[in-house]
Amino acid sequence: MLLLITSATLPLAIISVSISWNKYNESLEAPKNEAFRQAQEALVTVTRDINQTQRAAEFFSKYPYDPSFSHNFFQMLDQASNGNFCLISIFDAEGQIVFSEKTVKKNQCAYINPSTLPNDRPNFIDEGQNIIQVDNNIFVSNTIKFKKDDFRKYYIKIYRNITNDLFTSNNTHYYFISRKNKSLNESIDYISPIISETESLKVKKLIEEGIEKKNIIQKYDSLYLQKVLGNTWMLTTNYWGEQKRTSQYILLFDISLIFGVIAIELMIIAVCSREYLVEPLEYLALAVAQWRNGAEFSPNRKNDVPLEVRQLERAFLRATRHLKLRETELKNAAQRQEHLIHEIHHRVKNNLQVIASLLNLHANQIKSPEVQGEFRRVRDRVQALSSLHHHLYDNPELTTLRANIFIPEIAQNVLMSHGPASTAHIDIKLDIDDVLIPQSQSVPVTLIITEILSNSLRYAFPSNQRGIICISLKKQETTNGESRVLLTLSDDGVGIASEKNSQPNQQPLSGIGRQLIRGFARQLRAELIIRHDTGTIYSLSFALDPVEPTPSALAERVLNS
């Protein structure tokens, strides 16, 4: 059940994780493009400040040189720009300072010192725009050549601090690389402590190739290189490693939250399922098992059992009552059938006894000894069958007979039917195993024993000769698991004579008795062997038929299946 619930919630978890992953990727894409956006804004700012400086220098160069005018002009620029115009200087052609004035406001302009200007003379007398970076301060300079009244060449150079105009943060920085008066290696070395060696090599290669603009994405920062002046490039760096780690923490938190919520839901579902579904079903299964063992079916008495389980219990309760009623009817029907079978055997036994008595009465009225003997032989057979049905009537198993009980009785009845003379000089020895003879084979076995025993009593011991008749029934060992028995009847009498030399007091080799023995042997599918070395020996080996269950046993088997 938990597997089914987990499978149902798995798509929701996958969708949630996918959304969190997309948000994570979006949060990483934003800082990657931030360097490009800020670089474009910085380019606009630098261009604007360069143009303002250019216009200020051009405006100043149109008027004749006058120190008082120069002072007033610079004060006007200083006030208008809130001190961003740091320095104005006028040089002659030899680079000597003719006029110089610095803003009085204490700001980033402190890095611009007129006394240091001649040390970098070529940088200060070249015409055009230039960008100077001192530590974290960025200055735009503009140099214009003009002539005074003495027709000499002069240069005006105006410095403007644009650091405050550029948007900076803890993660964003700007670096200007110039090839105008410095070698590329010197400019790159200036920023090497800021960026990695690999990044420095990439920047150097791009500048050497003359790339106008290029976005360089690294693992934890973004670099954007673009050209701002003829020989000057601006490198914008945006470090977003901290934001990446924050995004990773957020992603990890979101995934943990998703699976945590799912785990809590599964725990709640498991507890509720155990309380309201598994335990009621286990109780129902236990009640069914107890019912199968014969106990009454007892439904769950709790009030919080789910309606579906309660309906299932009610349906099963109705089914058990119906089945119990049907079981009772089936058992009663089986008992009635067994009672009828007992009654049939009883009535058959009584009828056979009546027939045997009638045969005995008719035999007593017949004067011919041969005919009287035939009547008595038929009577013995009928009495044997009557004894068989008597055992079937008394046997509760109905479908089998115990050989060690009914064979001795049959032998004793046959011996008694031949009169006191036979019982006086003939002994019967029995060696019978406790074997269950199926009802289907009990009639042939009884008639074979009766027929052979009658023949021995009649022909084997003439002139009241003493003798012994042995009856043996033994189990046989088989390799295929088949149940086989060996029935042996032997006497130590005169033996069987051939038909040609047959005497009145000897057993004939043919006749109705022998035909009956052979016929019943075929019915048993038995191997019949007759030997007459000393006396007569009959051996029959046959397989026992499968025992058919009684009606009650069959009904019980059906009910327990």
UniProtKB/TrEMBL annotation:
Output one GO MF annotation: protein histidine kinase activity
A Pfam family recorded for this sequence: HisKA_2
TM annotation in the entry: 249-272
Is Secreted a UniProt keyword of this protein? no
Q: Which UniProt keywords apply?
A: ATP-binding, Kinase, Membrane, Nucleotide-binding, Phosphoprotein, Transferase, Transmembrane, Transmembrane helix
Q: Which residues belong to any copy of the Histidine kinase domain?
A: 343-546
Q: Which SUPFAM superfamilies match?
A: ATPase domain of HSP90 chaperone/DNA topoisomerase II/histidine kinase (SSF55874)
Q: So which domain of life are we looking at?
A: Bacteria
Catalytic activity annotation: ATP + protein L-histidine = ADP + protein N-phospho-L-histidine
Uppermost EC category: transferase
Asked if Nucleotidyltransferase is a keyword of the record, the answer is: no
Which EC number(s) does the record attach to this protein? 2.7.13.3
Which InterPro entries does the UniProt record give? HATPase_C_sf (IPR036890), His_kinase_dom (IPR005467), Sig_transdc_His_kin_sub2_dim/P (IPR011495)
Can you say what this protein is called? histidine kinase
Q: Which organism is it from?
A: Neokomagataea tanensis
